[in-house]
Amino acid sequence: MESTARTGPSIGKIILIVILVIILLLVIGVVLIRTVFREDVMRATVKTAINVTEGQVRTNPPEGVDTTRYLALCEAFLKQIEAAPLNDTAVSELFYTFRDASQDKTLDSQELATLEDLMISNYPELESYRTLTASPEEEVNTGQSVSRETIVVNVCEQDPKNAADWRNSGISLFNDPEAPTKRKVGKIPACESITVEVLQKKTVDGVMFYK
């Protein structure tokens, strides 16, 4: 008696096809989330980071800070994100700044001033909510003077008279005398050493970045 030959794909092939289909569906799902729901995910990320600092401010109110006004700023900022979403760079900076500030589970007036500056710099219309100011010598509600760290950097410009413009440009300066020259093209005829305030510090791959 002759045996009937088996036809069709083997069980192993069927299992492999099923696995590949599942992987493909997962990839499609991730792409859809990153495109269709991208803004929602970004807003949720920032909201989570801000909510953490709000909880810390309520639990341990920093001295000399109008916490009610700060919390109002946070709420107004979150509403602005809904109305006018930020780009990826701004969202990333917000998330990491708020996360780093809240890691020790307590916030002081200086950290809150930095967070306020960051929120208001993205939405200047929120200036009226400001409770603190991140300046080199600032007077807070307690009347105490708060000093900021400063660093000296070498600024090189094609035109020496424009070097002073770097002082108020708001641009991040690297702790590297040659870094500012890399932002320009052409011949660099002159450099000037200036003192800048340190608003934020972060180490990336062993390199310290100042802002």
If helices are DSSP runs of H or I spanning 4 or more residues, what is the number of helices? 5
Q: How far from one another are the termini?
A: 86 Å
Strand-residue proportion: 15-25%
Number of domains: 2
Structural class: alpha+beta
Seen as an oligomer or otherwise, the chain set is: single chain
- Biggest sheet: strands side by side, in what order? 4-7-6
Shape by Cα distribution: elongated
Q: How big is the Rg?
A: 26 Å
Could you give the order of the helices and strands?
HHHHHEEEEEEE
Low-confidence parts, pLDDT < 50 over ≥5 residues? 134-147, 157-189
Query: What average pLDDT do the residues reach?
Result: 69
What's the total number of strands? 7
Could you give a short account of the major beta sheet?
A: 3 strands, antiparallel
Helical content class? 40-55%
How would you summarize this macromolecular structure in one to three sentences?
With 211 residues, the protein is of the alpha+beta class. The protein contains 5 helices and 7 strands, in the order H-H-H-H-H-E-E-E-E-E-E-E. 44% of the residues lie in helices and 15% in strands.
How would you describe this structure to a colleague?
By secondary structure, the protein is an alpha+beta fold. The protein has 2 domains: 38-146, no CATH class; 149-210, no CATH class. The chain contains 5 helices and 7 strands; from the N terminus they run αααααβββββββ. It has helices at 11-35, 38-59, 67-83, 88-102, 109-122; strands at residues 137-139, 145-147, 150-157, 173-174, 190-197, 201-204, 207-210. It has a 3-stranded antiparallel beta sheet with strand order 4-7-6, with no helix packed on it. Helix 2 runs antiparallel to helix 3, helix 3 runs parallel beside helix 5 (109-122) and helix 4 (88-102) packs antiparallel against helix 5 (109-122). The model is unreliable at 134-147 and 157-189 (pLDDT under 50).
